[in-house]
Amino acid sequence: MKSLERVHGTTGIKIIIGSAFFWAWLGALFMSMFFVRPEAEGFMAEMATIAVFGLSLPWLALSLAKPAACNGLLAKKRVPLAFAALGTAGSLLLLLAGINLNWIALVAGGTCAGAFMAAYQLAWGAAYCHDGERSATPYVAGGFACAIVVDAPLLFMIPEAAAVFSALLPLVSGALFASIDPQLRTYRRTAPVDPLPKRSVRSRLKAHLGTSMMLLCAVALVMTGFGYLQHLVSFSPVASDGSANGILVQVARGITALLVFAIVVVGKRRASTVYRVGLLAMIAGFMMMAFLFGTDLFWVSGAIIISGYTILDLLIWVTFSQIAYAQSRDPLKTIALMRLLAVLCYVVGALVGILLVGNDEIMHGNVAAETTVVGYLVVIATVLLLSSEDMWMLFGRTRPGDLSGDDRASQEARIDAWFDRIGLTTREREIGVLLAYGRTQPWIAERLSISENTVGTHVRHIYQKAGVHGRQEFIDFVFSPDQSMSPESREHVE
């Protein structure tokens, strides 16, 4: 019962299943399900994927430029349903392109499907981030896991039936999205969007959208590596059987998501361990890949890497959902920027894979070295991601929002008493609570209508009075069950 409460009952189930149909459609695209002729699989199927991703970029860019208008359109049932119809139309055009080997139909299909993809990344993103990490974790993990259940019948259908079945997935996703509460279909603004003073791009990103350059760089590197890997495993003849490997990779992705859902949501285990396992899986997969090129076991390394990538993809969604919920002044722009960067870098990675690896059946000698370089880039990305200051929300101690009413009241009383004991002023207490709940100094400055320098001064005084040396140490101490000792005395006892 409690596990069902984590996904917010019937509404949560609708969001999980509805987004699952969207992710299943995307999986069908990667599995070349819309291309029933063998000669169309491979290069043409990959060009269709690149076209869909590439032609979704203008829509994502438009949402960044006009977030209020985009948010208003999501609230209207007819608009999401219209984009769902475009997704189905685009999928059928891709099917036609594969049958007739028609590039005009491919571009037209990519245009329609790209519009659907952009719209529904933002649409389901609104539902994901509505309650921060607490909603994103079960919704994204559940959606990824259920997607493989939706895609499973495709494996037992004739190619034509599988293509038509896949083409209908956008309509189902759209119908379920239109059926949920309008408040969940739109992004809640956390603060008024007032003009910001001129400052560096880095500062503006943090103050306005709540994200950091480190996180964005991590997303860019991860998605570039994924685009390269997807070409290598799912579309390139190097993989010996691209379409079959693509299916196996998607199965690995679904199973991984199911395990994450079971461990983090149902089992209520610490997410940090799961995410670190994802990093290790990607490292191991890239190390194995160099030894499995040209063999029948090549898919094994790809499946391991995709499993790790799935965990990191979940982490990215959860992280940005938490940022959009807790720190961003315009949540839609935060999610749109993340998806725009992710989609763009996927296209770049896929094109790099085509240029470096090619589509020849014979693998040239530099592929292993190139793949190793990509592996290093992905490892760097995961290190950046896991070391970001925004990760404390996911790796830290239990937050009041996760507690029952009595436990939350008890914890807040304990924190309040500790603030009294260390002698915080009224303003310092106000800032201290916001710090403990993960707010950044720019966010606090905007919220309290004071300068960042003033916030910084208060933060230094808070740290001095608490006897801590940094943000994470302060957070750990605030939520510690024993606040009777200073951090120094605690270390001495331990």
Compressed to H and E, one letter per element, the order equals: HHHHHHHHHHHHHHHHHHHHHH
Poorly predicted tracts of residues: 1-5, 191-198, 395-407, 485-494
Mean pLDDT: 77
The largest pleated sheet is described as: none
Helix content: over 70%
Number of helices: 22
The CATH homologous superfamily of the largest domain is termed MFS general substrate transporter like domains
Overall shape: globular
> From the 3D coordinates, which CATH architecture of the largest domain would you assign?
Up-down Bundle
Alpha-beta content class: mainly alpha
CATH level 1 class label of the largest domain:
Mainly Alpha
**End-to-end gap:** 39 Å
Tally of distinct domains = 2
Measured on Cα atoms, how large is the radius of gyration? 24 Å
Explain this structure to me?
There is one protein chain. This protein is an all-alpha fold and 494 residues long. It folds into two domains: 2-187 and 204-395, MFS general substrate transporter like domains (Growth Hormone, Chain: A), CATH 1.20.1250.20; 400-493, Orthogonal Bundle (Arc Repressor Mutant, subunit A), CATH 1.10.10.10. It has 22 helices and no strands. The chain has helices spanning 2-6, 9-30, 43-65, 67-75, 78-100, 103-128, 133-151, 159-179, 201-209, 213-235, 242-266, 271-292, 298-326, 331-356, 367-386, 392-395, 405-422, 426-436, 441-448, 452-466, 471-478, 487-493. Helix 2 packs across helix 7 and helix 10 (213-235) runs antiparallel to helix 15. Mean pLDDT is 77; it is low at 1-5, 191-198, 395-407 and 485-494.
